[in-house]
Design goal:
By secondary structure, this protein is an alpha/beta fold. It folds into two domains: 261 residues, Aspartate Aminotransferase, domain 2 (3-Layer(aba) Sandwich); 145 residues, Aspartate Aminotransferase, domain 1 (Alpha-Beta Complex), CATH 3.90.1150. Helices cover 46% and strands 14% of the residues. The strands form five sheets. It has a seven-stranded mixed sheet with strand order 4-10-9-8-7-5-6, sandwiched between helices. The structure holds D-serine.
């Protein structure tokens, strides 16, 4: 029996892997089954195209290529140069950026590259110049001492974690929180929206070196023109982390004041969320920061991953096609439909709705913690993640929220009617779940009670909802 190219490629790959370690081949096959069968609402996940996935599984993985295009620390990088230059060209064209650095392995790495580039640009430090010539792990204690003394306590102002900001925007558990003296701006307690006057006030008081905008759980647009004005008013470098909504920028859903690229000095992103590429990161900037950004490897990044850069080039080429704009606008239409469906059924949403790809449900109205809700939904075949809501009384571990997003289901082709049906399933599970108790009978933030018959019925309905929208329909493994 003959197969199409995608099926042949994945079948052959699995056959070759199976001959060495069949359990790995089995796990890869099982992952496809799981992804096909689950209603995936994790706002930061998506499904990359077969071409993107295949671009990662090859001998580019074998090549070291520290340095930049045409200026490597290793010989024989001509083909890596080709794919890195292509990925950067597609990124520049897609986002209208002067410079693109496509080596970061993740969003965290991209942010670290940006932070060090800004420090090098803004602070006169011979120790930093020295550090840029090697990996930070290779610095001696004396080097670090000099670096700390010369850099001082530089300040960063970013969005607070519980308002939807990201851990890498200067928070303690992350290295960024140790590099910078951080303060955060939150959202208006009444509306859940960013209050730009308050941000301006915080900037005036704190005088940050870096003002960061961007989020992983804020369901609204951010006005980057206003944020840039605030940064300029205090002499801060304006950085935007667009990891979550890069696909909406690429697809021209976010334009004008809501497109960060023309307004920010530097923009970081991941490539695998709404942008639908391989897992990885990227930095965009103007010419004035380009040289410092290009020093990311070896200073803070391990060797670039040429196979992932090849996949970035493929995915970015896909995002430049006209149909990507249609995809991006359907992501937002679906998020609206999902939010409306939940609101009509009585759910409480942070900010009362959405204008991007994500919705944040405050599940305390159902008498649940985020953790209880997340597990009950998972039992019912609905994959989400718990998330803190502003001023969350349950903290970052148990939380009071469930974050859901539409990029993945939109890739499968689900539309407004299916989003309404999804809202019904989510509401049914949350409504029928009750908080449980611990072994001592005390209220538990983790235990919950959900009739298995309800979970089974919802799981079946979720599977039925997906049936007309097969994932990777071009791939049959057998
Ligand atoms: N892990 C990503 C998210 O889920 O938003 C961000 O780090």
């Amino acid at each position: 029996m003959s197969h199409n190219a995608e099926s042949t490629a994945f079948r052959s790959a699995l056959e070759v892997i199976r001959a060495v370690e069949p359990r790995v081949a089995d796990a890869i096959g099982a992952e496809l089954v799981d992804q096909r069968e689950s209603l995936k609402l994790i706002a930061s996940e998506n499904y990359a195209s077969p071409a993107t996935l295949l671009a990662m599984g090859n001998w580019f993985s074998d090549k070291y290529a520290e340095g930049t295009v045409g200026r490597r620390f290793y010989a024989g990088c001509q083909n890596v140069d080709t794919v890195e230059a292509l990925a950067a060209e597609h990124a520049r064209e897609l986002f209208g950026a002067a410079h693109a650095y496509v080596q970061p392995h993740s969003g965290i790495d991209a942010n670290l590259v940006a932070f060090w580039a800004i420090l090098a640009d803004r602070v006169e430090s011979p120790a930093l110049k020295k550090a840029q010539k090697r990996h930070v792990n290779d610095l001696t204690e004396a080097d670090w001492f000099a670096l700390r003394r010369e850099l001082g306590d530089q300040r960063m102002l970013g969005m607070s974690l519980d308002a939807g900001g990201h851990l890498t925007h200067g928070f303690r558990p992350n290295i960024s929180g140790k590099m910078f003296d951080q303060r955060s701006y939150g959202t208006d307690p009444a509306t859940g929206l960013i209050d730009y006057d308050r941000v301006a006030e915080a900037a005036r008081e704190f005088r940050p070196l870096i003002l960061v905008a961007g989020y992983s759980a804020y369901p609204r647009k951010v006005n980057f023109r206003i944020m840039r004005e605030i940064a300029d008013s205090v002499g801060a470098t304006f950085m935007v982390d667009m990891a979550h909504f890069a696909g909406l920028v690429a697809g021209k859903v976010f334009t004008g004041d809501f497109d960060p690229v023309p307004h920010a000095h530097i923009v970081t992103t991941t490539t695998h969320k709404s942008l639908r590429g391989p897992r990885g990161g990227m930095v965009l900037c103007g010419p004035e920061l380009a040289d410092q950004v290009d020093r990311g490897c070896p200073m803070v990044l391990g060797g670039p991953l040429p196979h992932v850069m090849a996949a970035k080039a493929v995915a970015l080429a896909e995002a430049r096609r006209p149909d990507f704009a249609d995809y991006a606008s359907r992501i937002v239409d679906n998020a609206h439909a999902l939010a409306d469906g939940l609101l009509r059924r009585g759910a409480s949403l942070v900010t009362g709705g959405t204008d991007n790809h994500l919705v944040l449900i405050d599940v305390s109205g159902y008498g649940l913690t985020g953790r209880q809700a997340e597990q009950a939904l998972l039992d019912s075949g609905i994959v989400t993640n718990r998330n803190a809501v502003p001023q969350d009384p349950n903290g970052a571990w148990y939380t009071s929220g469930i974050r859901i997003g539409t990029p993945a289901l939109t890739t499968r082709g689900l539309g407004a009617a299916e989003m309404d049906a999804t809202a019904e399933l989510i509401h049914t599970v949350l409504d029928r779940t009750t908080a449980g108790t611990g072994p001592d009978g005390a209220p538990s933030k983790a235990k919950y009670v959900l009739d298995p018959a309800v979970a089974e019925s919802v799981g079946k309905q979720a599977a039925d909802l997906l049936t007309p929208f097969p994932l990777y329909p071009e791939v049959t493994l057998g």
